[in-house]
Amino acid sequence: MGLFGLGKKPGLGIDIGTDAIKAVEIVSQGDTYEITRVAETQLMQNLITDDEVTDIGKLSKSLKQTKRGLGTRAIDVVSSVSGSQAISKQLAMSLDLDDEAIAEKIEMEAEALIPFPLAEVRYDFESLGEHPTMPGQQRVIVTATRTVSVDTRVQALEEAGFKVRIMDVDNQAILRACDHVMPHLYPDLYDNKLPLLVLDISSAAVQTIVIGHGEVMFTRYQSGGLNQLFKALDNDGEIDHGELFAKLRAEEDNDFSPLVIQDFLGNLWAKVSRGIQIYRSNAIKKDFAGVILINSGAMLPMIAENIREQAEYPVICLNPFEHFPLPSKYQHLQSHGPRFVEALGLALRSFTPWHT
């Protein structure tokens, strides 16, 4: 199996994060889609460490729980590896080249494109269409990741009863979800010629992504997400992190040290600011149309407020469920939409062509 997969169908995306598995199933409805099923399964600590699976059997057990929670008969799935484990390069190639010719050209240039031993990697490509500034050329994105990063996730998914059709990359899935949802929810920001700054704040990391013109223009991973705050607030390790998260969501933080919270927020902005500086050092367009917060961090009011105070641009917390109404039995997950952005992007991936 190549990096992206084997066949066609269904619209089932599974995001295997460090703290939880998020799954979204969609069906095509004319020129749009409808969410039919959603599921979330919490993972035990350290099951995913540094984006690597430490116990395939335990991960498979959690994926089986996700499958039961979905209650779907669909088994074809789209999942992903972390962009921190992948490398992507965009190339300009003649519009006359079809997929077979593009594949041959990449094979010829693979050693120069991929900085890993070819025997240790999986790679694939996707045409992004005609190049906006180079007539007669098309943009082709080539993505490669180490085989072990793909194989451990594929093994866990298949042991859980799924059939892996595509292994995507997380930042590409996030881009796809934003490109689908933003024109409906925030058309003014999306139509702006300036790029968008996406801040993916998870339990384990902060990922800074710059997107624009249908492509990921920049990405930077930095370890140290919400878990740093949770550990600082619970020195004794006696409080469940889920309980801490719920209290912070409800802004019930009177029992917590304001110095600890301010220290975390300061460190968070320092990470974001550093990512922006690195992007700007090589960017032609140094400003942004806006800032998009996603994942668990987007669900904490104090983070959104802090980013709004620091940023020079409009800041939104992207909830794709505001565009895709959830079936009534999933209404309790409505406010959790920011955590499902990647899973939605993975589900959308199954409705675009890929290579065999």
Automatic annotation (TrEMBL):
Gene3D superfamilies: 3.30.1490.300, 3.30.420.40. CDD domains: ASKHA_NBD_PilM. InterPro entries: ATPase_NBD (IPR043129), FtsA/MreB (IPR050696), PilM (IPR005883). NCBIfam families: pilM. This is Cell division protein FtsA. It comes from Pseudidiomarina piscicola. The lineage of its organism: Bacteria, Pseudomonadati, Pseudomonadota, Gammaproteobacteria, Alteromonadales.
